[in-house]
Amino acid sequence: MSRAELSNLIETIFTEVQSTREAGQKEYARESNNAFANFERIGGLLHKTREEILMVYLLKHMDGIVSWVEGHKSQREDVTGRITDAITYLCLLWGMTLKDTEQQTMGDEVI
Questions:
Q1: HSE of 64, CA atoms in CB hemisphere, 13 A
Q2: pLDDT in tens, 2-25
Q3: Which of 11, 28, 38, 99 sees the fewest Cβ atoms within 10 Å?
């Protein structure tokens, strides 16, 4: 794969990640203002932090990815779907690391 092809693939992947996150927000968060509502709801029920709940979801997908890497190619969900979900969870975790301030920054860039 060339560098240009990989660059195009990464663009495609992050478009899919954004779509996956938006669909998940509608389905799971239930509150348009709180991207982490489902993690907080379940965390409250299980007395765990939202980050701990996210890790359970992330590790489920990582387990499937590891299985695929180890040769189990016939899975219920395509491995690229699991990878997309894992990237989505990592992006959500990044969001959880940001302080709840009005102006959140990433490096020098305001987000």
A1: 18
A2: 999 999 999 999 999 999 888 888
A3: 99
Name the domain count of the chain.
1
Give the number of other Cβ atoms within 10 Å of residue 108's Cβ. 5
CA distance 84 to 70: 19
- Residue range(s) defining the domain that contains residue 42: 3-96
* Residue 11 counted as domain residue: yes
Per-residue model confidence as pLDDT tens digits over 25-84: 877 777 668 889 999 999 999 999 999 999 999 999 999 999 999 998 776 778 999 999
- pLDDT for 22 equals 85
Alpha helices in 25-110 (DSSP H): 37-46, 50-69, 79-97
CB-based contacts of 38: which residues, under 8 Å, 6+ apart?
28, 29, 30
Q: Which residues of 80-105 are buried (b: 16+ CB within 10 A; e: fewer)?
A: eebbbbbbbbebbbeeeeeeeeeeee
**Spatial CB neighbours of 67, under 8 Å, sequence gap ≥ 6:** 75
